[in-house]
Write a structure and sequence with these properties.
Strand order of the largest sheet: 1-2-3-5-7
Strand content: 25-35%
Radius of gyration: 16 Å
Number of helices: 2
Low-confidence stretches: none
Helix content: 10-25%
Order of helices and strands: EEEEEEEEHEHE
Length: 168
């Protein structure tokens, strides 16, 4: 039952690895961006942390798990190598457009305020799956979708993705 604010890690720049999931840790995840010795930003599921997903902008992993946190932010900042994000029971995310992506981003139960824009952009990208399991081939969003993304949904399905929208 590890507890405490992750801000105390801020001066441990030589730290190379850390596991925070399933703890009672609190605080803003921005401190993880200061830990220059980390080989990568860790999964932080089932914690009481908050913050912006932009801390993952330089991550080298292909999947991110943020389940049961209060993390939110702009999904557009995630690098192209990130292929799957599990964000069930988290904050609200936004999409401000393709920045440097060529690969489709699969999402699991993501609350998003610009679903049509996200789907339309994803439909223009290449399918590259993080694995063979079905969740790596699923775009599951929570929010409002209109007919403006009907063609995008069909295109994503033809590329092997299952698209599911749950009204907010």
């Amino acid at each position: 039952q590890v507890t405490g604010d992750i801000s105390v890690l801020g001066k441990l720049t030589g730290l190379t690895d850390i596991y925070l999931s399933n703890t009672q840790v609190t605080g803003d995840i921005s401190v993880l961006g200061k830990l220059t010795g980390l080989t990568d930003i860790p999964d932080i599921s089932y914690t009481k942390v908050t913050g912006d997903i932009s801390v993952y902008r330089n991550t080298k992993v292909i999947q991110i798990r943020l389940v049961g946190t209060s993390v939110s932010g702009d999904l557009s900042v995630l690098p192209n190598n990130v292929l799957w994000v599990q964000v069930r029971n988290t904050g609200m995310f936004t999409w401000t457009g393709i920045k440097n992506r060529t690969n489709i981003l699969a999402l699991e139960q993501c609350k998003c305020d610009k679903i049509d824009a996200f789907l339309n952009d994803m439909a223009t990208l290449e399918a590259k799956f993080a694995g063979e399991q079905s969740w790596y081939k699923t775009i599951s969003l929570i929010g409002t979708r209109t007919s403006a993304s009907d063609a995008a949904v069909q295109t994503l399905q033809s590329k092997g993705y299952t698209v599911s929208i749950t009204p907010a």
